[in-house]
Amino acid sequence: MAKEEIEAPITINIGNLCKGAIIDAFNDELRKCLDNIYDLNTPATASREIKLNVRMKPDDSRTRIASEFTCESKLAQPHPVQDVFFVGKDAETGALFGLLHDPRQASIVFTAPKPKEAPQPIQFKGAK
């Protein structure tokens, strides 16, 4: 009779813990960080971080362990965008509202000048 080979037990590592999903989740968060680094709307030198949290909860016998993980990234926030707007007040109701343009600024109304006609080209006459 041939000897039957016994398989060695498979030990847990980051590649097979939680069915290997940790590596996929890390790669997804790494992609988000790299996209954020190349986003021109964010500060170039701001730190980004990836946080991997693995939770293990054993049963009473300490031989069976439930495991779960979370993986999240902390990205740089976009540069702040500043703007101004003006406040108007309804004369009848007193209600306030925002306006894009200053209501106290008078409009400049004018008629655009007509374009000048191009001068006629000079015509040279030959000698007789």
Main features:
single chain, 128 residues, alpha+beta, 4 strands, elongated
Biggest sheet: strand arrangement: 1-2
Helix content range: 10-25%
Shape: elongated
Write down the Rg.
36 Å
Largest sheet: 2 strands, antiparallel
End-to-end separation in angstroms reads 127 Å
Order of helices and strands: HEEEE
Could you say which structural class the secondary elements and strand pairing correspond to? alpha+beta
Low-confidence stretches: none
Total beta strand runs: 4
Q: What is the number of helical segments per DSSP (H or I, 4+ residues)?
A: 1
Q: What is the strand content? A: 15-25%
- The chain-level mean pLDDT equals 90
Q: Can you give a write-up of this model?
A:
The chain is 13% helix and 22% strand. With 128 residues, the chain is of the alpha+beta class. The chain has a domain of 58 residues. The strands form two sheets. It has a two-stranded antiparallel ribbon. The longest helix has 17 residues. The mean pLDDT is 90.
